[in-house]
Amino acid sequence: MQAYVLWWILAAVLVGVELTSGTFYLLVYGVAAAAAGVAAWLGASIVVQMLTAGVIATLGTLVLRRWKRSTAHPERTVEDMDIGHPVQIDSWQDGHGQVKYRGALWDAEAESASVDSSRPLIIRAVKGNTLVLGN
Length: 135
Prior knowledge:
This protein has a 5-stranded mixed barrel. It has helices at residues 3-21, 25-41, 46-71, 76-80; strands spanning 86-93, 96-101, 104-110, 121-127, 130-134. The longest helix is centred in the middle third of the chain and has 26 residues, at 46-71. The mean pLDDT is 90. By secondary structure, it is an alpha+beta fold.
């Protein structure tokens, strides 16, 4: 079997597996393998084929990592949208309780012992499913 056919089979397998993972890294490696297949088809030596695959895979990985960092939105940003909003106390005892917020009951805790539950409570932070409240 010709080398270019093996490269293209490898490329097809990598792209096929990528369809199940959704990370884009295997897509980059599949493109690198396809490019190495083109190099083999044009008659390049095995060293040139490997260098072609390696360079394209490395550059593609670096570009993909940079793109993912620039488009990454940490999960904290969703939680930060809640910070500063008032809540309605449903039950409260010793700095812990349940509050109504956005139409649902949430577990809550006081950010410090000085929090006065008789005054309006405001979300100061979010820890998992628990709202941290203060005055």
